[in-house]
Amino acid sequence: MARLLITGAGGYIGTTLVELALGKGYEVIALDRFFFGEDLLEEFASNPKFSTTKKDIRDLRADDLAGVDVVVDLAALSNDPSGELDPDLTTSINHRGRVHVAEISRAAGIARYILASSCSVYGFGETSELTEKSPTNPLTEYARSTFDAERAVIAMGDADFCVSALRNATVYGLSKRMRFDLVVNTMTRNAIDSGKITVAGGGNQWRPLIHVRDVARAILNIAAQPAEKVNKQVFNIGGENQKIRCLAFAVRENLPFQVTIEVEPDNDDKRSYNVSFDKARSVLGFEPKYDVPFAVREIYEAVKAGVVDLGARTVTVDWYKRLLKAEQLVDATRLNGRML
Ligand SMILES: NC(=O)c1ccc[n+]([C@@H]2O[C@H](COP(=O)([O-])OP(=O)(O)OC[C@H]3O[C@@H](n4cnc5c(N)ncnc54)[C@H](O)[C@@H]3O)[C@@H](O)[C@H]2O)c1
After folding, report:
1. How far is the CA of 262 from the centre of ligand 1 (A)?
2. What's the domain count of the chain?
3. What is the pLDDT of residue 264?
4. In this structure, which residue's CA is closest to atom 28 in ligand 1?
5. Mean pLDDT in runs of 10 for the chain (340 residues)?
6. Is residue 340 in a domain?
């Protein structure tokens, strides 16, 4: 079975992918700065097919890739507000860091490189059912650096180096590194905590959505495809498109208690996009297995059972703000001269 090196393996998608890949018999090297803690992958420590490398992607070297067949590149400052905290840092990790990972992979003779891109590259979509050929319109630092990375790595693909990019929809569902800053998860958490969901910006904005375990399935699907099918290809990966207002109702319907929904008027967040997933369906045969009602119920059950992290690190931008503040105060935690 192939050996995967997963950057960002300690993250929301990464921890889910590690579990799925090990379950399918892959060998996994988890490379991460582990900004959200090394404890999240602890349960795999005794698995002989699993190892970790604590490293910044910007310091990746060829010898980190010994014996690796596929590099899955997930590491990034992973949302718009985190991307705005320090635009230079965002470019340095999300654009140049990923290009560095792809360049080192190609130079080391790795056969495959898979990038986690994002549907946010579409920005405010002029049309519905945006396909991979539709114009892009990245509106934020996060979306721009994602798109720049995507363009650069796709251009590197050749007969010896198979490169694919997944433009992931907004992800939801339970993960070991839980994120309560993603729309379905946030609404579910707010409903549980306060019996209320607030819908910002009028609620008519479209969002493409996908369950975190379906993202992990899509990555392993691409890793197993013949190279000629996926080389230099970009795939929209999602399960459905929903208006934010409808999502709030879907969350409410799947919780066993009274929930109030409050819709706030229009705001400055102009991100709205409705995306087609036909290419992934027809080329990869990829069909999602999970949906929003399933995720709302699984999150609710996990919160009720006390088995989900509800702590500060589940809100990405707040956590990075803390780390940046710590950087100003503490020098000792630097890794190879880098704090963030
Ligand atoms: N979650 C979503 O809704 C979503 C949607 C579209 C695309 N994506 C993309 O998927 C990828 C993973 O997202 P996620 O939700 O798992 O995010 P996450 O924040 O949970 O995980 C990112 C991981 O990358 C690590 N990391 C950050 N900078 C690093 C660096 N310089 N070197 C090494 N490790 C570093 C962090 O420690 C973290 O474990 C990202 O590239 C993100 O842009 C996510």
Report:
1. 31
2. 1
3. 86
4. 76
5. 96 98 98 95 98 97 97 93 85 96 98 96 79 93 96 98 98 98 97 96 90 98 98 97 95 98 76 87 98 98 96 93 75 57
6. no
What's 80's domain CATH number?
A: 3.40.50.720
User: Measured between alpha carbons, how far is 29 from 97 in angstroms, rounded to an integer?
Assistant: 18
Distance (Å) from CA 138 to ligand 1 centroid? 18
Q: Which two tokens stand for residue 8?
A: 């960002």
The pLDDT of residue 332: 42
* 117, part of any domain: yes
Is 172 close to ligand 1, i.e. is its CB under 6 Å away? Answer: no
Does residue 177 have its Cβ closer than 6 Å to ligand 1? yes
Ligand 1 contacts CB of residue 214 (under 6 A): no
Residue with token string 């990923």: 98
Q: Classify residue 108 as exposed, middle or buried by CB count within 10 Å of its CB (0-12, 13-18, 19+).
A: middle
CA atoms within 13 A on the CB side of 235: 27
> Are 4 and 69 in contact, with CB atoms under 8 Å apart?
yes
| Strands 206-211 vs 50-54: parallel, antiparallel or unpaired | unpaired
Determine if ligand 1 sits within 6 Å of the CB of residue 79: no
Which domain covers residue 51, as residue numbers? 3-329
Tokens of 232: 């230099």
Q: What is the pTM of this model?
A: 0.95
Q: Is the CB of 10 under 6 A from ligand 1?
A: yes
Distance of CA 171 to the CA centre of its chain: 7
57 within ligand 1 shell (Cβ under 6 A): yes
Q: Is 116 in the pocket of ligand 1 (CB under 6 A)?
A: yes
Q: Which two tokens stand for residue 242?
A: 């929903």
81: amino acid identity, one letter:
P
Ligand 1 center from residue 36 Cα (angstroms): 10
